[in-house]
Amino acid sequence: MTVTVNLQQEMFDAGALVNQFTRDLPEAGAVATFTGLVRSTPDKPIRALILEHHPTMAQKQIERFAQEATDRFDLLAIEVVHRFGEMQVGEPIVQVMAASHHRQSAFDGANYVMDWLKTDAPFWKKEVGPDGSYWVDARETDETAKEKWTK
Amino acid sequence: MTVTVNLQQEMFDAGALVNQFTRDLPEAGAVATFTGLVRSTPDKPIRALILEHHPTMAQKQIERFAQEATDRFDLLAIEVVHRFGEMQVGEPIVQVMAASHHRQSAFDGANYVMDWLKTDAPFWKKEVGPDGSYWVDARETDETAKEKWTK
Amino acid sequence: MIIRYFAWIRERLNRDQQELALPESVQTVADALDHLRATDEDFAAILPPETVFRVALDDELVELDTPLGNAKELSIFPPMTGG
Amino acid sequence: MIIRYFAWIRERLNRDQQELALPESVQTVADALDHLRATDEDFAAILPPETVFRVALDDELVELDTPLGNAKELSIFPPMTGG
Question: What residue in D sits closest to A120 (Cα-Cα)?
């Protein structure tokens, strides 16, 4: 049972991470992966994303969510990679990978960490758009997403 | 909105598929991936897995589940790769990738397809163990997993 | 009509498909299975009515009381265990 | 005590941290914020009591009534928008 959390400024290769994560888990029948990407949509175009973070607090918080997910869903391994700094459209921001014997716990483990990450990990998004850059507001739906785990 | 379903005997590279899938989706903020692997556990060791399938029916069924997931969860794209034939421990069997604007629909899309796949796609597992090979029985929990989507 | 067999049913019957001319009286999937049981000892022994198996007509899962209609293929197989 | 600021709060205050000697009477997070408002005009203008922000003591999210205890760092930041 391994919990790995990496905060890094550098770009990462989503697929390479999946393969690396999976390689040493002969007992894992199921791997669920979530990749969050910088997106630009026609109604809200952006050029880049700047992600500010609280380094020591982020590391501790994410390790805690990952450990909680491991215990709760009986995961074989979990890995979280989260970037900070400036990123371009299409680049990955975050990746969560959860391995388990069974598919539902792998899905739930990755989903659980993402829900908490969105609301409780100390990261702040600044979008760089055509009319300048602005801080993103916290979304109500992220708070409600978290509640499903306390039911 | 693209639905891609590939049934193949050859091994696939889980990470390369993730990267390929993600590359042409600048609007996708979220990609959820499920990878099912051949597993061997100490209490139930196997040497290999043989997966028999009904080719035309499998293709049609999986395309239908994938299309349903796309409509239901408003996915930007979904791709399913499912192998048949003989596979070794640690090799991937199936991969489902769902892309969306938002993380929950990406998770739900991949999860939905996997639940239906397990029970309704015409594949049959034969495990090759130390004492010969045997067909795997259908599991009750797979039937109940499906029910969560009809609530 | 083509009858196709899969997994342990295919193995135990020792064939993966067969062509079968069905009499007029055979209207539904259940009729076809009864006809096979009546005319084929192996089939009757391996797939008695209480066996748990599924059937598809031309790639669509169907029930026992589904009419054969113009279907070209009847597939007989155990519950699926894919994914 | 070190006070650290993040995101738009850091930008508007135009500093990312400051060292602060707190008087004995300052016992809780709320006391520290009140002290900052009383002694720092910029802080008072940018972080009035009705602002929505969060606080952490030594990397742990805390409430306004949490005692400062032996904490070395107080972090002040907007609601998180990560992931």
Answer: D80
